[in-house]
Design goal:
99 residues; mainly alpha; 0% strand
Length: 99
């Protein structure tokens, strides 16, 4: 066992020396827990979605276009009214994708 010098009469394992690392570890784990919890609750990463089967998705979505996906979970949703509403904006195409 090595020789340790006790300078100024301090205790070898003093509790104030552990306060700052404990606080830093608390902040680290709180941040990581919040980030991973948010990712899990948002359902990410989503490796598959039915919109991936839409025509022109592979060629356009990753280069110079964007896709708008409307999911029909609302009981007041009407396919014909929604299609007519979207087509008034001079879109390239309106496509219905099956689940």
């Amino acid at each position: 066992m090595g020789l340790s010098l006790n300078i100024a009469g301090r205790p070898i394992f003093s509790w104030p020396a552990f306060i700052i690392p404990a606080y830093e570890w608390t902040i680290l784990w709180a941040g990581l827990s919040a980030a991973f919890g948010m990712i899990a609750l948002n359902g990410l990463p989503q490796l598959y979605h039915p919109v991936f089967n839409a025509p022109n998705f592979r060629s356009g979505a990753t280069t110079d276009k964007f896709f708008l996906c409307l999911e029909a979970a609302d009981p007041k949703f009407s396919v014909t009214e929604t299609r007519a509403f979207l087509e008034q904006f001079q879109v390239v195409s309106v496509v219905e994708v099956d689940h």
